[in-house]
Design a protein that fits this description.
By secondary structure, the chain is mainly alpha-helical. Helix content is about 75%, strand content about 0%. The radius of gyration is 19 Å and the shape is globular.
């Protein structure tokens, strides 16, 4: 019997293929809509992109200034990923908390489920990297740390969605 190795990139590739397949099925069923954003949501999204870009630019500047110090903890390949993730996180959380992300309102459980799957897959990859000893090598963060960074980002986004649901529920009660 042949054993399929689901370690590392293979596992993530299978998850990506499952997400693409689910999207294709949804598209065939005609469930994907072109979302219409109102003016307020477009302004919120614009501000979110501005804040995300500013955060990413600030992180890149800090990376350039403190490259030698950061290189003690992160590989050079990890530093740009970290800067990109900071920008994306600021953008996404701002948009979610200010109600500018329309699919969260229309399909909250679908968005929450997708983020939860991404969080769990990156968490499992982090645990796998720790188990096989490639999380940190020679005091330098390796690919496993990248999975951990992504897991933390998806967890923060999940928490932002939960906070938004709580805020909306309290607004409805008042």
């Amino acid at each position: 019997m042949m054993f399929i190795n689901l370690d590392g990139p293979t596992f993530l590739l299978l998850i990506l293929l499952a997400i693409i397949l689910a999207g294709a099925i949804q598209g065939k069923r005609g469930r994907w809509k072109r979302y219409q954003y109102d003016e307020r949501q477009e302004i919120v999204r614009g501000r979110g992109f501005q804040y995300g870009f500013a955060a990413m630019a600030a992180a890149l500047i800090l990376q350039a200034v403190y490259t030698d110090w950061l290189a003690q903890f992160f590989s050079y390949e990890m530093l740009p990923l970290l800067c990109l993730c900071i920008g994306i996180l600021v953008n996404t959380v701002y948009i979610i908390l200010h109600d500018g992300y329309f699919p969260v309102n229309e399909h909250p459980m679908t968005v929450f489920f997708c983020l939860a799957v991404l969080f769990l897959s990156n968490l499992f990859q982090t645990i796998h990297a720790i188990r096989i000893g490639v999380f940190v090598q020679d005091g330098e963060a390796m690919a496993g740390v990248g999975y951990l960074i992504l897991a933390v980002i998806f967890l923060i986004e999940l928490l932002a969605i939960l906070c938004r649901f709580i805020i909306k529920r309290k607004e409805k009660e008042e």
